[in-house]
Design goal:
Bound molecules: cytidine-5'-monophosphate
Protein name: Coenzyme A biosynthesis bifunctional protein CoaBC
Shape: elongated
Low-confidence stretches: none
Pfam family, one: Flavoprotein
Strand order of the largest sheet: 12-11-8-13-16-17-18-19
Number of helices: 14
Number of strands: 19
CATH superfamily of the largest domain: CoaB-like
Mean pLDDT: 93
Helix content: 25-40%
Strand content: 25-35%
Largest sheet: 8 strands, mixed
Number of domains: 2
GO molecular function, one term: phosphopantothenoylcysteine decarboxylase activity
Cofactor: FMN; Mg(2+)
Structural class: alpha/beta
Organism: Rodentibacter genomosp. 2
Distance between the termini: 27 Å
CATH topology of the largest domain: Rossmann fold
CATH architecture of the largest domain: 3-Layer(aba) Sandwich
Length: about 400
């Protein structure tokens, strides 16, 4: 079963359509999903916790400030536990609060604290639905990756006719089960990816770094996760949000990244080094802020460990290892040399001689492996990541 064992948080907000959510939960349970219900205070005016407890098979969570409930499963735990969150019905009030990032009740807090994909089934009076502010809120949520289900058109509980009826339980169920079957072909495969720049301290307030945005590594992580792989993303300081279902480890320096990478590499089947790791670090980091004095100053730098080379040369539990190479000339020769010297299974080479790659949204790659090569033409980093993941998986599977 597609939903069997999946952990679903069902959030119910205040609206008459809440009675239909009981049927949706029943469908989830029939499909052997593990369901936890979270009620907003006004939802409890429409459906009772007792009914929902009986239908879902678990205690219902209602308050952020209930010590007993927090003991059983705290709000952050619940946010982490979920494979998906479905809010049905999602009232205009909840949608507004969620859009601006409020955390003033249990459900909105869970939504803010989770990494899981969130589905919203709006339900409200057609006039409320058509209001410009509601439409703006829904557009903003969609832009953040929140998936809308419905609403449908038709007769409303208030007597109006129009858009705003909550989708039927079977429709909501179909969207969710579709989501869990889509491209989940990499379940069981564990991948670790490094991304972003590293930051090498000079003194407590200054550092050496580079322009890497982390976009390519994050796009690869997102694609692997969408296909059901277990993904650990070790990232330097970037401003990107963590893709759904990805475990993120934040680091600053190359040494920190090296430690996290080596620790995780042996526990994963695929290692992808996408980070722009600083080759050198400051030999002696000043304890105090360096004062301005002489016209010139010298910084002594020492070599950082080469993370991907160390992973490539692991003798036990070595993962399938993929590196990147940014080159301005002799792309193919340098990439092949890196493949050999770092003992990699694949090198993804960027030609950075013309135009921007760092921080850009588009990229092209030339892939090299021992027996062959392939060019992936210029496209968005998200689309490129999808193609690249296909190539990596194809080569990885040949090693099994
Ligand atoms: O040697 P170069 O820096 O060109 O190699 C790039 C590849 O090596 C990338 O995959 C990058 O993530 C990785 N790298 C590393 N540790 C370093 C330097 C580069 O893992 N210290």
């Amino acid at each position: 079963m597609k939903l069997s064992g999946k952990r679903i948080v069902v959030g119910i907000t205040g609206g008459i359509a809440a009675y239909k959510t009981i049927e949706f939960i029943r469908l989830l349970r029939k499909a052997e999903a593990d369901v936890r219900v979270v009620l907003t205070p006004s939802a409890a005016e429409f459906v009772t916790p007792l009914t929902l407890q009986a239908i879902s098979g678990n205690a219902v969570s209602q308050s952020l400030l209930d010590p007993q409930a927090e003991l059983a499963m705290g709000h952050i735990e619940l946010a982490k536990w979920a494979d998906a969150i479905v809010i049905a019905p999602a009232s205009a009030d909840f949608i507004a609060r969620f859009t601006v990032g409020m955390a003033n009740d249990l459900l909105s807090t869970i939504c803010l604290a989770t990494n899981a994909p969130i589905f919203l089934a709006p339900a409200m009076n057609q006039q409320m639905f058509h209001q410009q502010i509601t439409q703006q809120n829904l557009t903003a949520l969609q832009a953040r990756g929140i998936q809308l289900i419905g609403p449908n058109n038709g007769v409303q509980a208030c007597g109006d006719i129009g858009a705003g009826r909550m989708s039927e339980p079977t429709e909501i169920f179909a969207v969710l089960s579709d989501f869990f079957t889509r491209d989940q072909d990499l379940q069981g495969v564990k991948v670790v990816i490094t991304a972003g720049p590293t930051r090498e301290a000079i003194d407590p307030v200054r550092y050496i770094s580079n322009h890497s945005s982390g976009k390519m590594g994050f796009a690869i992580a997102e694609n692997f996760a969408k296909r059901g792989a277990g993904v650990t993303l070790i990232t330097g300081p970037v401003t990107l949000s963590t893709p759904n279902n990805v475990t993120r480890i934040d680091v600053l320096s190359a040494k920190e990244m090296w430690q996290a990478a080596l620790e995780n590499a042996v526990k994963n089947q695929i290692f992808i080094g996408c980070a722009a790791v600083a080759d050198y670090r400051v030999a002696d980091i000043a304890d105090q802020k360096i004062k301005k004095s002489a016209d010139e100053m010298l910084l002594k730098l020492v070599k950082n460990p080469d993370i991907i080379a160390d992973v490539g040369h692991l003798t036990e539990n070595r993962p399938f290892t993929v590196g990147f190479a940014a080159e301005t000339q002799h792309l193919s020769d340098y990439a092949k040399e890196k493949l050999k010297r770092k003992n990699l299974d694949m090198v993804c080479a960027n030609d950075v001689s013309e135009g921007q790659v760092f921080n850009a949204d588009d990229n092209a790659l030339q892939l090299f492996w021992k027996e062959g090569s392939k060019t992936l033409s210029l496209k968005s980093k998200t689309e490129l990541a999808a193609d690249l993941v296909n190539e990596i998986v194809e080569r990885y599977q040949k090693t099994l």
